[in-house]
Specification:
- With 168 residues, the chain is α+β, with helices and mostly antiparallel strands.
- It has six helices and eight strands.
- Helix 2 packs parallel to helix 4.
- 20% of the residues are buried.
- The model has no long low-confidence stretch (mean pLDDT 87).
Length: 168
């Protein structure tokens, strides 16, 4: 089990799919090459995921909030989520609950499991075989240091003259 974070959520208008992007926590520390796992989701699922990521609260409970309230009243909580399989473009997940030291393992849609885990700040994992099958390399370009960029700009300004703007 490899710990992952939600790197980003890309929301689109229906009927186009939205995308939730997972990234191994270990890759966050690395400077250049990262692996990302995109999971295509529907617009309703993306809205729920966005609410969880933003930690938005509403006056009336949404479905995921209701489920978590029920868990709390049963002295249970989300222990962790495991993205455990992928077949084609379909991902599978296990939602593990903890109640009085007992672990309860449930089959869940990844979007529901992730929405619940995000709301309770529970860890999310991906099976190594799923990471190997479904991940893509992502290379971050090094951005110039702000100070270095400002020095270059000042050097450019020092050498500029009004004649540089003449039409020829």
């Amino acid at each position: 089990m490899i710990p992952v974070i939600v790197k980003t959520l890309i929301m689109t208008a229906a009927p186009a799919p939205s995308i939730i992007v997972l990234e191994p926590e270990a890759d966050v520390e690395r400077q250049e090459t990262h692996r990302v796992v995109p999971i295509w989701i529907g617009s309703a699922e993306a809205a729920q995921m966005g609410i969880a990521l933003e930690k938005a609260r509403f006056t009336r409970p949404l479905t995921h909030d209701l489920f978590l309230d029920a868990l709390t009243n049963l002295d249970a909580c989300v222990d962790h989520v495991l993205i455990n399989d992928v077949k084609g473009a379909t991902f599978y997940a296990r939602l593990t609950l903890r109640q009085h030291g007992r672990l309860i393992d449930l089959d869940a849609r990844p979007t529901d499991a992730l929405s619940l885990a995000l709301r309770q700040e529970a860890p999310v994992f991906i099976d190594e075989s799923v990471l190997e099958k479904a991940s893509f390399p992502y290379v971050f370009r090094k951005t110039p240091d702000d100070e270095e960029q400002m020095e270059e700009f000042h050097a450019f300004l020092e050498n500029i003259a009004p004649d540089d703007f003449k039409d020829e």
